[in-house]
Amino acid sequence: MEHAAAAVRTPEDREAMSERLGHLDAERATVEGLLADPELVAAAAEPAADLPELEAGHERAERDHAARTSARDRAKGRLDQLTALAGELDAALRAYRPAEERHRLARRLAELATGTSGDNRWHMRLSAYVLGERLRQVVDAANERLDRMSSGRYLLRHDLNRSAGDRGRSGGGLGLRVLDAWTGVERDPATLSGGESFITSLALALGLADVVTAEAGGAEIGSLFVDEGFGTLDDETLDDVLDILDGLREGGRAVGVVSHVAELRVRIPAQLRVVKGRSGSTLSHR
Edge-to-edge, what's the strand order for the sheet holding 154-159? Predict the structure, then answer.
């Protein structure tokens, strides 16, 4: 009786217990619904999982995750470095481009001045251009005498093309051509005979003296020395050359001639003779 009396519940207790039973029934129905899910049913029918293998796979996945995380961090560090270097490169390029433009302009001017530029039509150095203008003046002055010394046959022409024998990339501006009035053909000075070369060289030397005199404000070159070459001249040409030299001497210049040609002894009054002997050479004045 005592136990029965102890088991008696008050209406409130019975109501609470009834409410709890209702909740438990609801939970059971929910669980049963979940367990009835086809996927869970199919999974329950599968063999039991291999836990050691799953743990090993988990460890491999953890290691792979750690390796990939480390690679990501290294890549991010490199990205930061490359971003900084790109900024530095951009700044360097901004500073370089004006210098490059100045260098390009300076190089173009240098190539033009040295005659190696494709824009330099004559492949002529600046120095050759300046000297070429002076050579043109010399040629004009030389032709006045060469025309007479060659009996009207030869005249010189300043040629802008490369000089004979010039094999460099740059050249030109200092070339000469010979106009032959007898054949009507332009010739290379190298085709002239010994005598023709001599009178041409003499005419150029005298023309140079005239140009220098004009540039020096009339201050003349007072002395002129001609060494050899007379033996290559025929009689008529020799007379023409000596007439020109006499004209220079009469104009106030001292003209010295070094030669072994015997005919010159008659035409040249003042002479210094060098005579060879056993004891050496002797000098005499006439």
Answer: 154-159, 175-180, 185-187
Cα 71 to its chain centre, rounded Å, is 46
86 and 199 both lie in a single domain: no
Contact 147, 130 (CB under 8 A): no
- What's the mean per-residue pLDDT of the chain? 83
What is the domain range of residue 106?
70-114
> Does residue 16 form part of some domain?
no
CA–CA distance, 153 with 143 (Å, rounded to integer): 11
Pick 167 or 95 by higher pLDDT. 95
Distances (CA, A) of 229 to 165, 195, 197, 234, 241: 23, 7, 9, 11, 11
Provide the residue type at 139 as one letter. Answer: V
DSSP per position, 207-266 = HHHHHHHHHTTT----EEEEES-GGGS-HHHHHHHHHHHHHHHHTT-EEEEE---TTHHH
Does the residue 153 lie in any domain?
A: yes
The string of pLDDT tens digits covering residues 141-161 is 999 989 988 889 999 998 877
Non-local (6+) Cβ contacts of 51 within 8 A are none
pTM across the whole model: 0.55
